[in-house]
């Protein structure tokens, strides 16, 4: 039992938070690229992504610190910087690019984990890369990284929120 839920229920909640975070993050990314007001989707993205990273630490683990937990720590640090840039820096000056970079990184981390999980849980993908060191897995993760690097560069050029 985790937080009063069975492990299966808790896992479902964790996965739903991840999906909500990714969906919200993709909307935020679209708003960056079109130079639109971030709106409620931005808050949904940040909250869901923070909760996703935080709930990941509650899963039982025999290891002291797993690679997933190290990524969770990194994600929470990145999200803390994003929150500071957004809520204290108001996206003014350097805080604009700091927010774009950290929000993009947080979304990338979520998608990175989604790809890892897909290769672990989806039978056909698992057959292609059972140890996640095979070329299909590496190529998939490299493509995801390249995609987010390109999006970040374009977003940095286009997103110019109004300063009030």
Summarize the structure.
The chain is an all-alpha fold and 164 residues long. It contains six helices and no strands. It is globular, with a radius of gyration of 17 Å.
What features would you describe in this structure?
There is one protein chain. The chain is mainly alpha-helical and 164 residues long. The protein has one domain (7-158). It is 76% helix and 0% strand. The chain is built from six helices and no strands. It has helices spanning 7-34, 39-55, 67-88, 94-121, 123-128, 135-158. The termini are far apart. 24% of the residues are buried. The model has no long low-confidence stretch (mean pLDDT 93).
By DSSP, the count of extended strands is 0
Task: Spell the H/E element sequence.
Answer: HHHHHH
Biggest pleated-sheet summary: none
Share of residues in helices: over 70%
Unreliable spans:
none
Report the total helices: 6
DSSP strand content? under 5%
Q: Gap between N and C termini, in Å? A: 48 Å
Decide which structural class fits the backbone: mainly alpha
Mean pLDDT: 93
Radius of gyration: 17 Å
Shape: globular
Number of domains: 1
Outline the fold blueprint:
Blueprint: H1 7-34, H2 39-55, H3 67-88, H4 94-121, H5 123-128, H6 135-158
């Amino acid at each position: 039992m985790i937080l009063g839920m069975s492990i299966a229920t808790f896992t479902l909640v964790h996965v739903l938070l991840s999906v909500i975070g990714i969906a919200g993050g993709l909307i935020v990314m679209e708003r960056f690229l079109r130079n639109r007001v971030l709106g409620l989707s931005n808050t949904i993205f940040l909250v869901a992504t923070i909760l996703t990273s935080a709930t990941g630490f509650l899963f039982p683990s025999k290891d002291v610190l797993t690679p997933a937990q190290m990524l969770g720590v990194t994600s929470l640090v990145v999200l803390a910087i994003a929150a500071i840039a957004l809520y204290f820096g108001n996206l003014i000056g350097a805080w604009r690019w700091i927010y774009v970079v950290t929000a993009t990184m947080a979304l990338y981390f979520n998608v990175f984990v989604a790809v890892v999980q897909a290769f672990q849980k989806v039978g056909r993908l698992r057959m292609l890369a059972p140890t996640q060191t095979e070329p299909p897995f590496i190529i998939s993760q490299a493509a995801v990284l390249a995609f987010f690097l390109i999006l970040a560069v374009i977003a940095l050029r286009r997103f110019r929120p109004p300063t009030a």
